[in-house]
Amino acid sequence: GGDGDLGGGFGESDLALYTRWINSCLAEDEHVGMQLPLEDNSDLYKFVSSGIAPCKLLDTLVAGAGPGEGEMTFIVIDDDDRKENVDLCVDCCRDAGCVVDDVDADGVVAGKPRDVLELVWQIIALPLKKELAAQKKMLKLAGVKVSSVDDFLQQDLNAVVMSWATAVLSKDKAHTGKVTNLTTEWKDLDNYSTLLKVLSPKKCHDMARKLRKIKDPLEKAQHVIDTAEDIGAPSLVSAEGILACRERQNWTFLVSLMCWAEKHMK
Q: Which of 49, 69, 167, 202 is buried deepest, with most CB atoms within 10 A?
């Protein structure tokens, strides 16, 4: 089936990716590890609503960014305890450079999908954004200057990634026009196919022909993801997400390709 909509541009495929990611990231955590793995993807909402898990995730992904142990309420009895933890988490996220204006703390406490997913996404995206700021050659190709990482984190990073993709795609003679979104323009996989061909000509020169042979759209998308992984660019992306035009997944996928290209592109 499709990729059910969960509000705020998130879909079931995002929920599945984040749940899997959290299961692996926090498995060893002394405070929340024993609650993992979450058996059902929708268990993520309750798990995040106490405010402890997102604090721990932030600290795991960006060392030292989470609140001190003494600041958190580990024995959560009611919504007031949850709210205290979630407010603390949102403050720490903001200080670390996350864009949390769209996160409603009360929504997180109530386990509302849109708010929980927005908070988790902002935490997962932060290390990717910081990494992106360091890809000097690729940012130059995209026509982007980085004065400071803090300033860079507040920029429209979708636009940065689109400029880069446009610049790389233009190296292919058959490709014309520029990338104007991270949603519908990636669904037919042509852009991904061309991008991989330009980035890794040895391994991906006959990508378009291979994709034409695959009739099932999900298999096609999975082939693109697997190919990127084979060249060394794994990412938090799913075939369902690409076909459902999930902007955050396309962004994440393109960032991983940018970081790969920084090291390997001639």
A: 49
Determine how many CB atoms are found less than 10 A away from the CB of residue 259.
19
Extract the tokens encoding 239.
């075939």
What CA–CA distance (Å, rounded) separates 208 from 25?
Answer: 35
Write the CB contacts of 199 (distance below 8 Å, at least 6 apart in sequence).
168, 231, 257, 260, 261, 264, 265
Question: By the 8 A CB rule, do 240 and 225 touch?
Answer: no
Intervals of the chain under pLDDT 70 = 1
* 3-class SS of residue 105: helix
Give the Cα-Cα-Cα angle 110, 89, 235 (nearest 5 degrees).
90
**Cα 15 to chain center, whole Å?**
11
Cross-strand bridge partners of residue 10: 7
Phi and psi at residue 213, to the nearest 5°: -70, -25
Per-residue pLDDT tens digits for 3-36: 899 999 999 999 999 999 999 999 999 999 999 9
| Of the candidates 21, 23, 24, 83, the residue with the CA atom closest to the CA atom of residue 52 | 83
Give the residue among 65, 70, 72 at the shortest CA–CA distance from 87: 72
